[in-house]
Amino acid sequence: MATQLSDAELITSLQARVKMEKKVYVPDERGGKSKKGNRKSEEKIEKMPGYNTRFMSHHSRRYVALKVMYFGKRFYGFASEAQMEPTVESELFKAFEKTRLLVGNKKESQYSRCGRTDKGVSSVGQVIALFLRSNLKISETNNGNSGVVLDEQHEGEIDYVRVLNRVLPNDIRIMGWCPAPVDFHARFSCLSREYKYFFWKENLNIQAMESAGNKLVGEHDFRNFCKMDAANVHNYRRRIKLFEISPTDVRYNDNQLWVIKIRGSAFLWHQVRCMVVVLFMVGKGLESPNRREKRCMYTW
Question: Among its keywords, does the record have Membrane (predicted)?
């Protein structure tokens, strides 16, 4: 395990990082300015402790689950795989790096997420899991897990919620954290997921929508209620555990806000969005709530 830096060494490291923001020139043989010094200085700085998350490897770490809330209006979804910015995930990892909580890179952190949300979608209960830096000392009963804290202890630990919320944008909040076993996976360990879709009632036939929605409950093949992803998905059967339509206490100009609640073990890409679109068609009288297998969008 690497030795801890002294105060003097830490100050020197921080000063070097500040100087990195400025261009460094050294005189060449003709008295001019050369850019070689700038490149060499940057190469030297990159090797200094604290510049790269890999240099945090001498710290103990623990596997934690974080509960995340975010307003999705300005984000291109949760996941950063689509190469569109900003995403909730990219903002989270910026915060992990800024607070020096990330040990190693994203892959080494054993990162997992409960699921993905689309552009503009908000969440109050997204769960992610990964290894983060810990203040706790390593227990002697770690069974060979080098540098990993396995205890359930909270006292003396980093206040992950406070530290992260100080640097995250205001539309992303960490709601809580808990230690997790190293074999925990935010996606595959999840027992159920719940979506709420808010809408104004206007002239929609709620009773017809409710009748159609109840037919979604149970296990069905939902390939015609999603955006196809044939390259990655081969099983389109999903189980819907709960379907409810209920009014809220929000009103505006004699129009009431209603909510559709759908709970399932898992969902396909755009599945909830497609189901809601069909329910709106039923509510507007464009589709019958009793129609089955007469159009490609209904497969049971």
Answer: no
Please check whether the two domains, 59-137+146-190 and 193-284, share a CATH topology: yes
221 within 8 A of 237, measured Cβ to Cβ: yes
- Is 7 catalytic? The answer is no
φ, ψ of residue 26 in degrees (nearest 5): -125, 145
Q: Domain spans of the chain?
A: 59-137+146-190, 193-284
Which two structure tokens, joined as six digits, stand for 24? 């460094």
Q: Please give the residue that has the higher pLDDT: either 190 or 106.
A: 190
Tell me, yes or no, if the pTM score tops 0.90. no
Give the rounded percent of residues in the chain with a pLDDT score beyond 90.
52
Residue 26 Cα distances to 15, 16, 42, 102, angstroms: 19, 16, 13, 35
Instruction: Choose, from 7, 28, 118, 171, the residue flagged as catalytic.
Output: 118
Fold of 59-137+146-190: Alpha-Beta Plaits (3.30.70)
Residue 238: beta bridge partners?
220
- Nearest CA-CA partner of 276 in 292, 291, 290, 258: 258
Characterize the bridge pairing of strands 61-70 and 148-149.
parallel
Residue-wise pLDDT for 190-215, tens only, equals: 999 999 999 999 999 999 999 999 99
Reported as a single tens digit per residue, the pLDDT across 154-204 is: 788 999 999 999 999 999 999 999 999 999 999 999 999 999 999 999 999
Please tell me whether residue 222 adopts helix, strand or coil conformation. Answer: coil
